[in-house]
Protein 1
Amino acid sequence: KLFFTDYGNAAKVERCDMDGMNRTWIVHSKIEQPTALALDLINKYVYWVDIYLDSVEVVDYQGRKRHTIIKGRQIRHLRGLAVFENYLYTVNSDNLSILQINRYNGTDVHSLAKLGNAEEIRVYQKRTQTAVRSHACEVDPYGMPGGCSHICLLSSNYKARTCRCRTGFILGSDGRSCK
């Protein structure tokens, strides 16, 4: 799945398949400017920062179990968001510090370091790097990913795929070749 935020005409947090199909709103009320987004891949939770409401909130992948982790002046100007173990990590663009926030009680907030200039933060952990198994976009004997002449996108699961074409090309009737 692909998770993303939008605060155009109607602010929301959404998810869809990797090929853009099955687009679903998971949060669409009491939300103003969702920006940074982070996933708890183990427990299947979505965290986001709302820079207008000065809040960090969470829901499960279906949009249920929503609650506010932390809200208020203490977390203004946040950029980027990452999850690692019991904490959320974010960058405060006002004073260029990295903040650590306890994701279970929200009251445990620490400034860890000051940076010269940062807009994003990521945590890399071996547990979240899932083992690659065979999938529908593997290169075929002719060197084409998933049998697609241009772009192969995983669909609703790792066994399904959708072929797409680069700009200026259209997908042929075979659903794989671009013309």
Protein 2
Amino acid sequence: AFWSDVAICLLPTTLVLIVSYCVQAHRYNIVENFGCFPATWLELYAILGLFVPPILCAAGSFICGGFAIYNFLAQRRRFQAVLQQHSSSLNSSRFLRLIGVAAVDMVLSLPFGIYEIIHNSYNLQPTYSWADLHHSFDLVQETDQSILNAQPGSWASINLSRWTTTLAAFIYFAFFGMHEDALSFHASTWNKITAAFSYIWLRAFGTS
């Protein structure tokens, strides 16, 4: 299980790193009122290497999530007994949270991924050789917001890439960071922090 988790974490990110460098025109862009942004040359290989794999993962997640929700609704009277037959930590509450995450993932991941690939396909650039693509690799290009305001689709795409990760983090925490075990852990951690601060305060300012 450990090496499986390591492979899941390292292999996809390494492949994305290699593909990103192959279609990286220069170091990065600086967009006004946004910050740093990757300088991806939107050619065919960039679309296939960077935008299509998330679509495939989202489609697989959509199918698996759909089957999970369908089976839950079709056999909801039996699922508690099925869970009790297996010696695992999965209970009805956790199972329902997983179903909720699957439903949210179905609603968000695939539509956003399709939007990204359609939007970037409209701006498809010609494919150049390695030398031509990387000849000014040390360049840091600055882009004014006025240029993006003239292209509403580009500004929407940039904001979408910025806020989807944040939204996903809040959704994940809402499902798995607010249940009973997590809340008790938060309370225990908070009590330890307040006790440590109280001890430091008394040592610094308290009277003997």
Protein 3
Amino acid sequence: GGPRRLLLVSNSTLHGGGYLGHCQQHIQSFLGEKVKRVLFVPYALHDRDAYARTAREKFESLGYGLDSIHESCDPVEAVRKSEAIFIGGGNTFRLLKALYDNSLIQEIRKRVLEDGIPYMGSSAGTNVATISINTTNDMPIVYPPSLQALGLVPFNINPHYLDPDVKSTHMGETREERIRQYHEEPNTPPVL
């Protein structure tokens, strides 16, 4: 296949800004003028209709049409026909389970890695672009058949990573300590 075209965003909203406001120039530069419609995957949140409305409003304001995969009678065919894919944030376990339940893992991999269509992920959508969801911050509210994800990049990502606050009196484990524990297991990939 051709080169991977990925835009992996840690979060969809920054304090004081609107949905994807902090990265909208990157989105327009990334998608360019050839892409006219984006296929949105809202599976990480429970209220998919509301999530699709939010995403549609933002993408239309940037000049792109948006189709939500949950409104399609055939999600696999929707992926096959897509010009670009955007998977939004929410709960990573819920998202990955829905991708498996709808037989989308291999279809998305093929479209991105072989056909070269643009893939954008935000938070949970970034998590599932990696090798596995082993390094997500989310709670396992549902159980996907595997923790293996799309494998669009040869590493894992920890969205929302924060360095420890040296002035904090909180004595709990930090994200850095959790990731170090992950790497105590053999053959774990790098974590960005």
